[in-house]
Specification:
Radius of gyration: 30 Å
Largest sheet: 8 strands, parallel, barrel
Number of helices: 18
Helix content: 25-40%
Number of strands: 30
Structural class: alpha/beta
Strand content: 15-25%
Length: about 600
C-alpha cells in the first residue's frame, strides 16, 4: 500500500465515522456530560466495523501510530495520523473535523466517571476494590472496619441473599466503621434479576453417615464423632453434627457408656460416650455406620442396660442427579421435586432424570437444537424436544466420569431469545425498600436497551434519577447489544459496566471469554464508562486462604478495569490486602500493548 492509498483509506474511514455518528438522533437525550463520550463511542464503532490489520502494518512501517489505542479518543487519533501522513508527503494538513474528545481530555473523562461511581481514587493505586458482603456483615461492624482498613472502596450488597432489613443493617455498620476508621466507602445494590435455576430434588430418606478417618494401613487415627442431644433441646451448631434422642435416657449417661444399635444396613454397630457438655453427649465410633430416622439406641454401662431411645429429626438426604453424556434430563415447568430416573444393571439410563426449571418463559421460548448449560457450564445439553411443560435435554457434555447436578444451580440458555424484562417484581420491591440508601444499583441479566430504560423509569419514579447504574454483562444478548445498551444508559449521569465473567463464559463459550471481555473493555473505554472486573478473583484465597497461580495472574489483569470485585469468604480481609498489593506493583509498570484490529463481532451484528 503506497502513501496515497493509505491516506485515502484513512480519510475515507474518518468520513465514515463522522457520518455514522450523525445518524444517531437521540444524542441530545443523553446526559450532557456523556454526549462527547457517546459521539466518541459512535466514531469507534464505525472504525472497528472495518478490517484494519493491513492498514495498521502500513502505518507501523512509516513509524506512525498503529491505531492500537484509539478507543478513548478515536477521531482525534485519526486526525493526528492523517495530518502526519500528509506532512510526510510534503502536503499541508487539511482541515480536520473537530474531535469530540481530545487525547488530553480522554483520561480526565474516564477518571471523572469512575470517581462519580466509585469515589475518589485511592492514593496508592488507581483501581478501586469492591467486596461482596456476607450475611454476618449485618451484625459485625468489626469485619467491615477491617475491610476498610485494608483497602475496600465499594461495598456490594447482593439482593439474592438476606433481606432488606439485613441490607440496611449492613449499611449502618458501614457508617459506623467509616466513623471509626476515617475512611469512606461507596455502596452498590445488586438486584437479583430473574431466577434461572434448578429446583429442589426429592429426598430419598433421613439418614446420616458417620465415618472414621484411617491412615494408609487402615488404622483409625480420628474416629467418627457426633453429638447426641435430648429431644427438643436447643443446640448451637458445633464442629460435628448433632442428632436428637427421644426419651430421658440420655440425661443418665456419662463418659465411658456404650450405645448399641443396628444401622440402616442392619449392621451391628457400637458408639462410645466420650464427653459431656451440659445436656449433650459427644459419641465416637471406629466403624462406618449409617444412622437413620427412628434408629433404636440401647444404652449400657459396664454391660448393664440403662435404657432405650430413638434417633429423631434426622435431616433429609437429597442426593444429586447423576448425569453422563448420552443421558436425558427433563426440565419441568411444574415445581415438582427432581428425581434421578432409572438405570439398568449395566448403568444405562432407562428413565430420564427430571428437575424443575424456575424460569417459566423458557418453556415457551426455547427451540429444539438449542444449547442449554447447567451448573456454571459443568453440564451441557441440546434440546431434543419441548411441549410447553417440559424440555427434553440430551446431555452432550459432562466432566470425565459424569457430573452431579444439585438443587439451586444456574441454568443458561445461550441460544434462546427471552422477552421478559430484566427487572422482576422482587427487584422493584427491593429497589423501593433501598431507594436513596445506596450509591448505585446493578441491573442483573440485562439483555437490551429496553431493560435499561425500564430501570431508569423506576429510578425517576422513586425520585432518585442520579443513582448510579451498573450494567451487568452476563449473557450473550447483553454482549451483542452492548453499544445500544451503553447509549441508553448514558441518559443517566452515572454509568458503569460489570463484566460478570461466570455466566458470560457459559453463554459465549469458555474459549471465547478472553476475546469477549477484551471487546467489552474496548467499547467501555470508547464510551469513557468505568468497568468492574468480576467473578472468582482470588476466590481460592478468600475461601481457603491461599490463591492459585492462575488466580494471581487473573488478579493482576484486573488493573485493565476501574474496579475489581471480590466475593465473600472467611479470609476476605487478607484477600483484599493481597489484591491491594498486586495492584500497586502492577500499576507501576503496566502499559497497554498495541492491538491488532479485526472487525468486532458486535459491529458485524448491527450496533444500534
Amino acid at each position: 500500500m503506497d502513501d496515497k492509498q493509505l491516506l485515502e483509506q484513512l480519510i475515507w474511514i474518518r468520513s465514515q465515522a463522522v457520518t455514522f455518528a450523525t445518524q444517531y438522533p437521540e444524542l441530545e437525550q443523553l446526559d450532557a456530560a456523556h454526549q462527547p463520550s457517546a459521539q466518541n463511542l459512535l466514531h469507534y464503532l464505525s472504525v472497528r466495523s472495518h478490517e484494519l490489520r493491513e492498514l495498521q502494518l502500513a502505518l507501523i512501517e512509516r513509524g506512525l501510530s498503529s491505531l492500537g489505542i484509539l478507543e478513548s479518543h478515536t477521531l482525534a487519533t485519526l486526525n493526528s495520523v492523517i495530518a502526519a501522513l500528509q506532512c510526510l508527503k510534503g502536503e499541508t494538513p487539511s482541515a480536520a473535523p473537530v474531535a469530540p474528545v481530545s487525547v488530553a481530555t480522554s483520561s480526565e473523562l474516564m477518571e471523572r466517571s469512575a470517581t462519580a461511581l466509585f469515589g475518589a481514587r485511592p492514593l496508592h493505586r488507581e483501581v478501586r476494590i469492591m467486596v461482596t458482603m456476607p450475611s454476618e456483615a449485618a451484625d459485625d461492624h468489626v469485619l467491615i472496619s477491617g475491610l476498610l482498613e485494608v483497602g475496600m472502596d465499594v461495598m456490594r450488597i447482593n439482593c439474592a441473599h438476606d433481606t432488606s432489613d439485613d441490607w440496611q443493617q449492613m449499611l449502618g455498620n458501614l457508617r459506623l466503621a467509616e466513623s471509626q476508621t476515617g475512611k469512606t466507602c461507596k455502596t452498590q445494590l445488586d438486584l437479583a434479576g430473574p431466577k434461572l435455576r434448578t429446583g429442589t430434588i426429592k429426598a430419598v430418606g433421613r439418614v446420616i453417615k458417620l465415618k472414621p478417618k484411617r491412615d494408609l494401613f487402615g488404622h483409625v487415627y480420628m474416629p467418627g464423632r457426633l453429638w447426641l442431644i435430648p429431644e427438643g433441646a436447643e443446640w448451637i451448631e458445633q464442629e460435628f453434627p448433632a442428632l436428637e434422642v427421644s426419651g430421658k435416657v440420655l440425661a443418665d449417661t456419662r463418659p465411658g457408656d456404650d450405645i448399641l444399635l443396628r444401622d440402616a444396613r442392619e449392621a451391628h454397630r457400637e458408639l462410645q460416650v466420650v464427653a459431656k457438655h451440659q445436656h449433650a453427649r459427644l459419641v465416637t465410633t471406629d466403624q462406618t455406620l449409617y444412622l437413620q430416622e427412628n434408629t433404636e439406641l440401647l444404652f449400657e454401662r459396664n454391660g448393664k442396660k440403662l435404657g432405650k431411645g430413638k434417633l429423631i429429626h434426622v435431616a433429609e438426604v437429597t442426593p444429586p442427579l447423576a448425569l453422563h453424556v448420552g443421558d436425558h434430563l427433563i426440565l419441568t415447568r411444574a415445581a415438582e421435586p427432581g428425581t434421578a430416573g432409572e438405570r439398568d444393571a449395566e448403568g444405562v439410563q432407562t428413565q430420564p432424570a427430571r428437575i424443575h426449571c424456575t424460569l417459566e418463559e423458557a418453556f415457551s421460548a426455547v427451540q429444539t437444537g438449542q444449547q442449554v448449560w447447567l451448573d456454571d457450564g459443568k453440564i451441557g445439553g441440546t434440546v431434543e424436544a419441548r411441549d410447553g411443560d417440559t424440555i427434553d435435554l440430551l446431555i452432550t457434555h459432562t466432566p470425565p466420569g459424569g457430573a452431579k447436578l444439585r438443587a439451586e444451580k444456574g441454568i443458561n440458555f445461550p441460544d434462546t431469545v427471552f422477552h421478559s424484562p430484566a427487572l422482576t417484581d422482587k427487584d422493584i420491591a427491593d429497589l423501593e425498600a433501598m431507594a436513596g440508601k445506596v450509591d448505585m444499583v446493578a441491573l442483573s441479566f440485562v439483555r437490551s436497551s429496553d431493560d435499561v430504560a425500564n430501570l431508569q423509569a423506576h429510578l425517576q419514579r422513586l425520585g432518585i434519577p442520579d443513582t448510579g447504574i451498573i450494567l451487568k454483562i452476563e449473557n450473550r444478548a447483553a454482549f451483542e447489544n452492548l453499544p445500544a445498551i451503553l447509549l441508553t444508559a448514558m441518559r443517566s449521569p452515572k454509568v458503569g459496566v460489570m463484566i460478570a465473567r461466570g455466566d458470560l463464559a457459559v453463554e459465549v463459550g469458555f474459549e471465547r471469554l478472553s476475546e469477549v471481555q477484551e471487546e467489552i473493555l474496548w467499547l467501555c473505554e470508547a464510551a469513557h464508562t468505568p468497568v468492574i472486573w468480576a467473578t472468582q478473583i482470588l476466590e481460592s484465597m478468600a475461601k481457603n486462604g491461599a490463591p492459585s497461580r492462575a488466580e494471581v495472574t487473573d488478579a493482576a489483569m484486573s488493573i485493565r478495569a476501574e474496579c475489581a470485585m471480590l466475593n465473600k469468604g472467611p479470609n476476605i480481609v487478607e484477600t483484599v490486602r493481597f489484591l491491594d498489593g498486586i495492584m500497586q506493583r502492577m500499576e507501576s509498570h503496566y502499559h497497554k500493548r498495541r492491538l491488532m484490529m479485526r472487525p468486532l463481532s458486535v459491529c458485524q451484528n448491527g450496533v444500534l
